Amino acid sequence: MADFGDELLKIVADQRASKQGKKKMKSRTSAVLNQSGPAGSSSLGVLARLKPGCNRARRCSKDFMEKSPPMVADVERAVILDMRPAARQEELARDAAVVIRLLETALVLNDEQGGSTRDMEKLKTRNEKLEAKVLKLDNELIDLRGKQENFAAQVKELRETRDALDKAKKELGDLKDTHAEERKGLDEELGKLKSAMTPVEGKPDSVRGL
Q1: Is-contact 26 69, C-beta < 8 A?
Q2: Residue 123 belongs to some domain of the structure
Q3: 53-62, 106-115, 164-173, 178-187 — which one is most confidently predicted on average?
Q4: From CA 77, how far away is CA 71, in angstroms rounded?
Q5: For 118-193, where are the E strands, in sequence order?
Q6: C-alpha angle 89/90/92, rounded to 5°?
Q7: CA angle (103 as vertex; 52, 22 as ends), nearest 5
Q8: Where is there biased composition of kind Basic and acidic residues (predicted)?
Q9: Which of 15-29, 44-58, 143-157: highest mean pLDDT?
Q10: Beta carbons of 96 and 32 less than 8 angstroms apart
Q11: DSSP line for 4-63
Q12: 25 and which of 14, 83, 158, 172 could share a cystine (Cβ 3.0–4.6 Å)?
């Protein structure tokens, strides 16, 4: 029972070999059939020699097999027992080839699933990097907006200061013009006073200055 799976693999290998290998397969098949007991109960031996998967999958498979052990119907049992050794050997080899083909397909699918998982991990890592980059850009954008607001406030303040300076310059110019006009008027008045106080020839001193 324990070596039934190995025997099936040997049968398939011997079937592909030469005629001498086929003779050996016949003797091994007889030994397997004598050791197998109830048909179908040896499938666990083959499955046990597969590449082990996750512990959870093995537990689920074990629980399922314990609840639903493999059984062979009486009609099928009778058909198997009524087979001639050659026909039984050929049928067993064909079934073993089908099982191996199924296992090969399962291995391919597992590899594909593993590749998909690796691709998903790569995409997840890339997505995390992109999210971090987007977050960084958002922070930079917020910082730039703050700087832009500060710059706009500074420009507004500078414009107001410049307007106030221009207004002050204009007022200063107006004051200078007014002061110049006032000084000119004062100079004219002063000149008139000086002219009036200057002595005139031919006039007596008593009337000078009148």
Answers
A1: no
A2: yes
A3: 164-173
A4: 10
A5: none
A6: 65
A7: 120
A8: 170-192
A9: 143-157
A10: no
A11: HHHHHHHHHHHHHS-HHHHHHHHHHHHHHHHHH-STTTTHHHHHHTSPP--HHHHHHHHH
A12: 14
pLDDT at 180: 84
Q: Which range of residues forms the domain containing residue 123?
A: 4-127
In a domain, 27, yes or no: yes
What pTM did the predictor assign?
Answer: 0.33
Alpha carbon distance 148, 161 (integer Å): 20
Provide the pLDDT confidence category of residue 135 given band limits of 50, 70 and 90.
very high
Residue 12 falls inside a structural domain = yes
Joined together, the tokens standing for residue 132 give 């971090």
The phi-psi region of residue 71 (left if phi > 0; otherwise alpha if psi is between -120 and 50; otherwise beta) is beta
Q: Would you call 206 helix, strand, or coil by DSSP? A: coil
Q: 203 to each of 1, 70, 193, 200, how far by Cα in Å?
A: 166, 161, 18, 6
Q: How far apart are CA 36 and CA 176, in angstroms?
A: 126
Q: Is residue 28 part of a domain?
A: yes
CA dihedral 74, 79, 81, 82 (to 10 degrees): 140
Give the number of domains in the chain: 1
How far apart are alpha carbons 6 and 32 in whole angstroms? 10
